[in-house]
């Protein structure tokens, strides 16, 4: 049987995702991301883990260098990729929202929207019939309206703490986000048994949670 390569997101999704695999009975070290190693082989399970930036997981899976991966729905919605989304893992719950300073209106002409998600934000405002200018940032998005860079932000909200501590309010909720198991279409044909088993075992754990 060939090795199954799994693209795991480093960062906040990692722990919950690794815990799911352990619950599903895979004998993997739960502290896979404790070292600086980016490729970790687990011969006992015939698995290889690659540790990627969350936004890049879909790229590895689309190109087939990883057979499967775990990615936030936000990442899936931001860029359309040729991958199968096979299971909602129901971890890393959060949502995307439009937020800004309380009591403010968006300026009439080309209001500015700061976001890490230009694709999702431009689609959302287009569907609302609003013409906006997207300002792409890579983090600390909440800063933008506070210092006059943008009228609104489109960003992830989880506990709401970041908005609150920066005096911002949510105006609209765009979409709920959880992490998903994704599969490369060619891998699904070539390694169907291994992948089906992974999907079934994870699905059972998700159902029981
Ligand atoms: N506050 C949050 N609570 C829960 N899940 C979140 C939150 N923020 C992001 N996520 C989920 O986790 C993923 C991003 O994880 P993480 O924040 O570790 O990576 P990142 O945004 O690339 O961060 P960094 O650039 O700081 O490494 C998102 O794609 C989303 O699905
Ligand atoms: O509702 P909360 O629980 O406060 O979580 C939301 C915050 O978490 C994410 O930021 P992250 O920590 O990834 O930092 P960065 O995007 O600013 O780098 C997101 O972009 C929000 O800023």
Any idea of the CATH topology of the largest domain? D-Maltodextrin-Binding Protein, domain 2
Question: SSE order, as H and E?
Answer: EHEEHEHEEEHEHEHEEHH
Count of beta strands: 11
The count of domains is 2
Q: Looking across the biggest beta sheet, what order are the strands in?
A: 2-3-1-4-11-5
Organism: Sutcliffiella tianshenii
Protein name: ATP phosphoribosyltransferase
Subunit structure: Heteromultimer composed of HisG and HisZ subunits.
Keywords: Amino-acid biosynthesis, ATP-binding, Cytoplasm, Glycosyltransferase, Histidine biosynthesis, Nucleotide-binding, Transferase
Description:
The chain has 209 residues and is α/β, with parallel strands linked by helices. The chain contains 8 helices and 11 strands. It is 32% helix and 29% strand. Strands 2-3-1-4-11-5 form a 6-stranded mixed beta sheet. A 5-stranded mixed beta sheet has the order 8-7-9-6-10. Strand 7, helix 4 (118-127) and strand 8 (133-136) form a beta-alpha-beta unit. It is elongated and about 60 Å long. The mean pLDDT is 96. The site of adenosine-5'-triphosphate (ATP) has 16 residues, from helix 1 and helix 3. This is ATP phosphoribosyltransferase.
Task: Furnish the topology, listing elements before pairings.
Blueprint: E1 4-9, H1 12-23, E2 39-42, E3 47-52, H2 57-62, E4 68-72, H3 73-78, E5 84-88, E6 94-100, E7 112-115, H4 118-127, E8 133-136, H5 143-146, E9 152-157, H6 161-165, E10 169-177, E11 179-183, H7 185-190, H8 192-208
Parallel strand pairs: 1-3, 1-4, 7-8, 7-9
Antiparallel strand pairs: 2-3, 4-11, 5-11, 6-9, 6-10
The site of 1-O-pyrophosphono-5-O-phosphono-alpha-D-ribofuranose (PRP) has 12 residues, from strand 9 and helix 6.
